[in-house]
Fold this protein.
Amino acid sequence: MDNDDFQLQFQQQLHHFEQICKSAGLKLTHQRLEIYRELLEAQDHPSAESLHKRLDARLPSLSLDTVYRTLTTFEKIHLVHRLETRESQARFEALTLRHHHFLCDQCGQVIDFSWPAFDAVELPQSLAEIGAIQRTSVAIYGKCAACLAHEQQAAEPPTADTSMAVAPDTATNG
Ligand SMILES: [Zn+2]
Ligand SMILES: [Zn+2]
């Protein structure tokens, strides 16, 4: 996605935000707008604490409690999604395009991915007895590429004692 596309989507999302607030009877305060904007820009599914830190320079009077309460309010009107992670701190994201999550067991990173084939799947009938579905999303648990690379690096023995300094063959074929 180029920058223009991103800007357009961002503007549309902000417009959507205003509409939802209006129809929910929620006053569009500067603080609320800034919290939403920050979350919309974040790629890392931040906790309320880390969002608060990011907003601190712009909004020094904003308290962590307000950030938390605002996120909870946004969640109720389906602007924001609270993620189920294994951490004790809840993490949040602005609800935008439908996507699923890869959660790294090692570093706790949450990475978005899309899965159109899953989205098209018909869900089991038995769910109707359990309740009404509002949203479906898949969580995949594993080890992220960065953690895997880190591990591999640590596992490789140091090559300092090689008698001849020969450049390794760096050619890769897919
Ligand atoms: Zn990781
Ligand atoms: Zn996400």
About this structure: The pocket of zinc ion (ligand 2) is lined by residues 45, 93, 99, 101, 112 (CB under 6 Å). Confidence is low (pLDDT under 50) at residues 170-174. The radius of gyration is 21 Å.
